[in-house]
Design a protein that fits this description.
- The protein starts with 14 loop residues before the first helix and ends with a helix.
- It has one domain.
- The protein is elongated.
- With 73 residues, the chain is mainly α.
- The mean pLDDT is 82.
- It has three helices and no strands.
- 56% of the residues lie in helices and 0% in strands.
Length: 73
C-alpha cells in the first residue's frame, strides 16, 4: 500500500481573518495616520472641516454650561 503524502502547510490566517482580529482603533490608526497596506495609503475617514469642528465646540460648550448650571443650583 502506498504511503499518503503529507499535507502542505496552511497559511495561519487569511487577510480577512487577520483584519477581524485587529481592534477598530488599530484599523483607524492604519487608515488615518500610518497608512494601510503595502503602499501605505492614507484614507481620511474621520477628518472634520472647520465648520464641523466649530459646531462640535459650540455643542460641547452648551452641554457643559447646562451641566455646570444644574450642579450650581
Amino acid at each position: 500500500m502506498a504511503k499518503r503524502r503529507a499535507r502542505a502547510p496552511v497559511n495561519a490566517a487569511t487577510f480577512i481573518g487577520r483584519s477581524r482580529a485587529e481592534s477598530s482603533e488599530q484599523k483607524a490608526i492604519w487608515h488615518n495616520v500610518t497608512g494601510a497596506g503595502r503602499r501605505g495609503v492614507i484614507r481620511k475617514f474621520f477628518d472634520l472641516n472647520e465648520m464641523d469642528q466649530q459646531a462640535l465646540r459650540d455643542g460641547l460648550d452648551k452641554a457643559m454650561a447646562l451641566r455646570v448650571g444644574a450642579l450650581q443650583r
